Structures are given as C-alpha cells and as structure tokens.
From TrEMBL:
Membrane topology of this protein: Single-pass membrane protein
Primary location class: mitochondrion
Keywords linked to the UniProt accession: Membrane, Mitochondrion, Mitochondrion inner membrane, Transmembrane, Transmembrane helix
Subcellular location(s) per record: Mitochondrion inner membrane
Any GO BP: intracellular monoatomic cation homeostasis
Name of this chain's protein: LETM1 protein
C-alpha cells in the first residue's frame, strides 16, 4: 500500500545512515589495504577491486555532500541522479538499482556472445568454402 510521508522520510534516513555506515567500514578496510601496500605486501585481485571501488566512492562523496550540506538542495538530488546515475557512491545503491545494473550487464554480454558466435560461424563458412 501507500506509505505515509513520515514512513518514507524515516526509510530514506535509514537508507542514508546505512550507506554512510557501509562507506565508513569500506574506508577502514581500504586504509588497512593501503597500509599493507605501503609495507610491500601484494593485494589480491579482489582486494585491489575493493580498494579501487572505495576510492571511487570517496571521490563521488564530495558532490553528494554538497546536496546534503546546502539547505533545500536535496530536492534537486533526484534530478541530478537522473542526469548522472553514477554520481552516488556504491554503498547508497538500492537493491533494485543493483539488479537493473546486473540485468544490463547480462544483456550486453549476451549481445556480445551472439555477435561472436555469428562471427565464428561466418569464419567457418569462409574456411569451408576456401578448403572445399
């Protein structure tokens, strides 16, 4: 059903609190990884990706904080998110947005696989014609 304004505001506040909390945890983990890097240890591929994602999130946080700090600018946030969908740090994404991203990636991979399959079939036909 339809939620009241108070419920929607409370849910948004919880969403942003959880997002900042997750970003704080990611930042602490990334700081430990940087410490390990500075002391000559090698990061795994997974750790390197997490470190890069956290750094990108921290850089995305700067324009996001402008919306939080400047009064009444949070009303423009949906407009800017529509124009720049990658502006929000990854810890603030909702499940539906994550699923939508995964769906788009899967469709792109399927299109690429279809193209490659058609290309290989065409090459096989040419080779068969050349040898035949």
């Amino acid at each position: 059903g339809k939620r009241s304004l108070r419920q929607r505001v409370v849910e948004e506040m919880k969403h942003y609190y959880n997002g900042f909390h997750l970003l704080w945890i990611d930042t602490k983990v990334a700081a430990r990884m940087v410490w390990r890097l500075l002391h000559g240890q090698v990061l795994t591929r997974r750790e390197r990706r997490r470190l890069l994602r956290t750094c990108a999130d921290l850089f995305r946080l700067v324009p996001f904080l402008v919306f939080v700090i400047v009064p009444f600018m949070e009303f423009l946030l949906p407009v800017f998110l529509k124009l720049f969908p990658e502006m929000l740090p990854s810890t603030f994404e909702t499940e539906s947005k994550k699923e939508e991203k995964q769906r788009k990636k899967l469709n792109a991979k399927l299109e690429l696989a279809k193209f490659l399959r058609e290309t290989i079939a065409e090459m096989a036909k040419r080779n068969k014609a050349d040898t035949g």
